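Hi,

I'm pasting everything inline rather than attaching a file, because the server keeps stripping attachments. The sequence lines come first, and each chain or strand is labelled.
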Amino acid sequence: MSRFLSGALCALFICSISGNAMAYNGTAGKAVYDANCGTCHNTGMMSAPKLGDKAAWAPRIAKGVNVLVARSISGYNGPKGMMPAKGGNPKLTATQVGNAVQYMVDKGK
Ligand code: HEC
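And the predicted assembly:
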């Protein structure tokens, strides 16, 4: 029984994380996004790439999630406008920002 249980847990959680290059969780990122990022990214305010706008996101996603996460954490002065560090909320952890970015990337595909 315990062998079955650890096998099942492995299949569900641990092994799926270690076998997956992207450790961020877009589902968990939705709440972070709604609270911190939607102000700009829902409407395209300040020329932010809109959530779900595939044409706007394709060239960004091509850079890789890790680049997007790093810029979202430190802030990014891009060709379109100014992306504030952590969306302007310094209380967010790197993982929370990463999850929010993953949510945006999932929607932009
Ligand atoms: C005050 C408005 C604003 C808020 C709030 C905001 N962003 Fe942005 N974001 C921008 C703008 C403007 C850009 C476009 C920058 C450019 O490409 O010139 C951008 C770009 C990005 C990009 C693409 C970066 C790239 O390299 O192409 C990501 C990813 C991103 N934001 C994630 C987030 C996340 C995650 C949050 C919430 C934690 C957030 N943003 C909150 C304005 C905002």
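The chain has a mean pLDDT of 87.

If the labels don't parse on your end, tell me and I'll reformat.
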